[in-house]
TrEMBL record:
Catalytic activity: 2-deoxy-alpha-D-ribose 1-phosphate = 2-deoxy-D-ribose 5-phosphate; alpha-D-ribose 1-phosphate = D-ribose 5-phosphate
Function summary: Isomerase that catalyzes the conversion of deoxy-ribose 1-phosphate (dRib-1-P) and ribose 1-phosphate (Rib-1-P) to deoxy-ribose 5-phosphate (dRib-5-P) and ribose 5-phosphate (Rib-5-P), respectively.
Keyword Isomerase: yes
Keyword Metal-binding applies: yes
Cofactor(s) demanded: Mn(2+)
Record localization: Cytoplasm
Organism (species): Rheinheimera tilapiae
Family indicated by similarity: Belongs to the phosphopentomutase family.
Domain of life from the UniProt record: Bacteria
The protein's name: Phosphopentomutase
Residues that bind Mn(2+) 1: D10, D338, H339
Keyword set, alphabetical order: Cytoplasm, Isomerase, Manganese, Metal-binding
InterPro entries noted in UniProt: Alkaline_phosphatase_core_sf, DeoB, Metalloenzyme, Phosphopentomutase_DeoB_cap_sf
E.C. numbers: 5.4.2.7
């Protein structure tokens, strides 16, 4: 049975990439920063014994020469390496598409102005088409800070809160009951149509609940409206060849619902891991179970919370033995990330980093996969694993995984 699992630990970078200076990110290191802050705060090391067994600490050290203070005194049982990103941006779609074999080599459109970020003609047309009396925000912001600042005014005025970041995004926060969830989704769909002309990668609906600035909280009903990947990904190739791709969490949104056979929603690390396991068992031969673990990025990386990030990593690590035990002899599991988001770095944005490439399967050959020149090496490996036509980018490392001992 050919069954594969990919888990993207969203934002779990392992050291600044060679081109990090272009992004102002030289020296960022999500993993090492979390481990350091965690040990300082808790007076004990971050405990990631199972990730360490897969080779995480060895891969991270090879990527950055910065020793993350996490115990690692056993030989690896996984194949481990680290990959750099070819794509021009350090955003979620670029990272995921490149993992699936399609780097984004063109430049996205960005709203660069920190204030008055959106062109007036865009706002006018959006208001005209949707009938809202205007928008709030119109700036770069952290999505939780802006609720504290503008949540009350939004409820009073009925104007949605529109904001952006260093990513190619147009985000819309609105109250689920006052503004309405369906109405927010419709507003975002209209924005999506208008933003194609601006080459913006994603529109994101950010619904929230609560009745005062100190309790406004975003709900699990976030929805992302992405443009299509610029070329067929390994997901498209697998489904076209009669295989099955099961999306767990945000994956389907990130790939604009292309090359996906089944969409399974879940909120929170525990539910996402639970669904990954149950969908793995239910999946037929020639299946890829593809999970995005967004909490690392959304709840801890962008929120600049290294302790919360460390605790979430420890939780994920505690579930790893179940994921490893479920795998059948021919199965392959990959853990990776789509970019960094160093929670000790200045600002609240992503950081340009190497990502870990950790592979495991009952029959794989443990050892180093070294530095990978593109995230696309992962997609190419899965293309070969499923006997699909080769992708345009990436060097498969399947031979290293399956070489006889
Ligand atoms: O601050 P929040 O709303 O979480 O925004 C973050 O989430 C967006 C999508 O990942 C990024 O562009 C970043 O700005
Ligand atoms: Mn991401
Ligand atoms: Mn993010």
């Amino acid at each position: 049975m050919k069954k594969a699992v990919i888990l993207v630990l969203d934002s779990f970078g392992v050291g600044s990439a060679p081109d990090a200076d272009k992004f102002g990110d030289s020296g960022a290191n999500t993993f090492a920063s979390i481990a350091r802050a965690f040990a300082n705060h808790k007076g004990r090391q971050l405990q990631l014994p199972n990730l360490a067994r897969l080779g995480l600490v060895k891969a991270a050290f090879a990527a950055s020469s910065e020793m993350a203070c996490v115990t690692d005194n056993e030989p690896a049982v996984g194949a481990f390496g680290y990959a750099r990103e070819l794509s021009s941006g350090k955003d979620t779609p670029s990272g995921h598409w490149e993992i699936a074999g399609v780097p984004v080599l063109f430049e996205w459109g960005y709203f660069l102005n920190k204030q008055h970020s959106f062109p007036p003609e865009l706002i006018d047309e959006l208001c005209r088409r949707t009938g809202v009396p205007g928008i709030l925000g119109n700036c770069h912001a952290s999505g939780t800070d802006i609720l504290v600042r503008l949540g009350d005014e939004h409820i009073r005025s009925g104007m949605p809160i529109c904001y952006t970041s260093a990513d190619s995004v147009f985000q819309v926060a609105a109250h689920e009951s006052h503004f309405g969830l369906e109405r927010l989704y419709q507003f975002c769909e209209t924005a999506r149509q208008l933003l194609d002309d601006y080459n913006i990668g994603r529109v994101i609906a950010r619904p929230f609940l609560g009745d005062a600035p100190n309790n406004y909280a975003r709900t699990g009903n976030r929805r992302d409206y992405s443009v299509l990947p610029p070329a067929p990904t390994v997901l498209d190739k697998l489904t076209a060849a009669g295989g099955t791709v099961v999306s767990i969490g945000k994956i389907a949104d990130i790939y604009a619902h292309q090359g996906i056979s089944k969409e399974v929603k879940a909120n929170g690390l525990e539910a996402l891991v639970d669904k990954t396991i149950s969908e793995y068992h239910a999946a037929p031969d020639k299946s890829l179970i593809f999970t995005n673990l967004v909490d690392f990025d959304q709840n801890y990386g962008h929120r600049r919370d290294p302790i919360g990030y460390g605790e979430a990593l420890e939780y994920f690590d505690s579930r790893l033995p179940e994921l490893m035990a479920m795998l059948e002899p021919d199965s392959l599991m990959l853990l990776t990330a789509d970019h960094g988001c160093d929670p000790t770095w200045i600002g609240t944005e992503h950081t340009r980093e190497y990502v870990p490439v950790l592979c495991y399967g009952p029959q794989i050959n443990a050892g180093s996969l070294g530095e990978r020149a593109s995230f696309a090496d992962m997609g190419q490996t899965f293309a070969e694993y499923f006997a699909l036509d080769a992708l345009a980018y990436g060097q498969s490392f399947l031979t290293e995984l399956t070489r006889t001992h």
